[in-house]
Amino acid sequence: MSLKVTNFDDIMKLRIFLLILLLAGLFAGRPSASAQEPMLSVFKENYVTTGIPLNARPDWDTNDLAFQVSLRYNALQNIAGSDWNVFLGYTQLSLWDAYKPSNPFRSNLYQPGIYAYHPFRKGPHGIIDDILIGIEHRSNGYDGAISRSIDCLFATYTHTWGGQFTAQATGRFGIGSIYNDFSLEMFNRYQGYVNVGLCYHPLDSRLMISASVTPLFMGDIPANISAEIAYNPVRGADWFYLVARYHYGYDENQLDCANPDAFLKHMVRFGLAVQPGVISHKLCF
């Protein structure tokens, strides 16, 4: 199956991406009503990377560029003094065949949602335990034969030891759709019901080594796998990281779900990233 994307579509997607970044710049420093966090801030990791496949010959057709933008609007903070925070989130992951002659976008994954976050144990080095629950929609933005989406309710628990080692477990379930028809295959074969994440982050946070695994219970691969090494080369600029990322599976390109012509790639990419202020949000599936 081939997907043609016009240059006009590419330009519009880039304009939307740049508009989101502009809004983040305008509002990231604006205080919320509680003066605790900016009203608009980073949610999950934001990055731009480029790289090559490990199971195919690197060339203009297989190399790509991947970027993710993820923002949160902090709607309610410390509800009734309980440390519960409610926010709206939006994450977009785009895979761009930027080296092909027509520079088409291979896929986009749009993830709006509403979330409730609660840190319920803190120590000398920060948060020890927290929980994030939410309702999230994930869609590739298409209709008809190439439509793929899930709507799910999830809960994520995160625990940190000594301020340096973090483990996370997530469970989720909902409704999946292929060709606009309900299908549990979206969870069984491609997206998974559970996710486990691990991260090593020394106290100065200049180095972060993380991995995420989503087991799959049917299909041709055992799991979706992501891993990353992030390094902050500049002291005092704690938002800026150089990253090396690895990915394998279906959860990055939702169009590959139920596509018999899909060719899964072991991708290694290198680039720049902005890390979220909460380590548990970095590990979010």
Question: What is this structure's SSE topology?
Answer:
Elements: H1 7-27, E1 40-42, E2 46-53, E3 64-76, E4 85-96, E5 105-123, E6 126-139, E7 148-161, E8 165-178, E9 181-182, H2 185-191, E10 194-200, E11 207-215, E12 223-231, E13 240-248, E14 267-274, H3 279-282
Antiparallel strand pairs: 1-3, 2-3, 2-14, 3-4, 4-5, 5-6, 6-7, 7-8, 8-9, 8-10, 10-11, 11-12, 12-13, 13-14
Pick out its properties.
twelve-stranded antiparallel β-barrel; Outer membrane phospholipase (ompla), Chain C; 285 residues; mainly beta; 14 strands; disordered N terminus
**pLDDT average, as an integer?**
86
- Residue share in β-strands: over 45%
Share in helix: 10-25%
Q: Characterize the overall form.
A: globular
Q: Look up the CATH topology.
A: Outer membrane phospholipase (ompla), Chain C
Discrete helix count: 3
Instruction: Give the second-level CATH assignment, the architecture.
Output: Beta Barrel
Helix/strand order: HEEEEEEEEEHEEEEEH
User: What is the CATH homologous superfamily assignment?
Assistant: Phospholipase A1
Rg calc:
19 Å
| Sheet with the most strands, sense and barrel status | 12 strands, antiparallel, barrel
- Could you give the order of strands across the largest sheet? 2-3-4-5-6-7-8-10-11-12-13-14
* Distance from first to last alpha carbon: 27 Å
Please provide the count of β strands: 14
Describe the structure.
The protein has helices at residues 7-27, 185-191, 279-282, and strands spanning 40-42, 46-53, 64-76, 85-96, 105-123, 126-139, 148-161, 165-178, 181-182, 194-200, 207-215, 223-231, 240-248, 267-274. It has 285 residues and is mainly beta. Strands 2-3-4-5-6-7-8-10-11-12-13-14 form a 12-stranded antiparallel β-barrel. The chain is globular, with a radius of gyration of 19 Å. The relative contact order is 0.15.
